[in-house]
């Protein structure tokens, strides 16, 4: 008999603001972050009111992890101390490896209209936290996609989508945390069963519609995050239709010490990051 991944918990995000006052929902992050290892945070932003996003994210530092920004609607310009300049637009992804240190800004390229998307923080193993920083823009037309035999569209940002019938490599691979990051669009009445490695931490974030998970008594409504067991197979059903982020990765099992935009393994490393930033040596 097939063992399915059990639901461990269902979470609701909390209102927050970041940058120069951008309003967002913190889906997870902060206290208890080890439950989501190797992921550190997921923010959802979405508004058609420019006052909620126009101030953007002026220059700020990061060290020790990666950020993945997935834009559903809108335009945001990235600039960093390495000289990278990129335009993140509807359907595109920005994958930034802060590692040893990066100072960057993310500012709106629009003064009206909807800005909507997600930013995911992915931890780096301790031995790679001081590697050189890197940045990559992935334009919408370069993001791999497929449609399953059951009519489910999958945008494959990272990892490899495989449901036993259709396969598609994602835009990004990471050998240490092996992230899988899919945007799944399920029409009404559809099901999908992505294969994921045993031992991977698995989360589902429903951002439109609702889904049903076998063995769970209630539908999972929009704006809910589901944390699943690390073993077993996965099946999602949607009677009404849904759009869902599937986020999975190999836990690092390392200490996580965070101070704002710095994520290291010890308090001493955090204090060093603060000294380096104060002394303009964060990015040396």
TrEMBL record:
Residues 22-122 form the Pirin N-terminal domain. SUPFAM superfamilies: RmlC-like cupins. InterPro entries: Pirin, Pirin_C_dom, Pirin_N_dom, RmlC-like_jellyroll, RmlC_Cupin_sf. Pfam families: Pirin, Pirin_C. It comes from the Bacteria. Signal peptide: none annotated. Residues 181-281 form the Pirin C-terminal domain. Belongs to the pirin family. PANTHER family: PIRIN, PIRIN-RELATED. This is Pirin family protein.
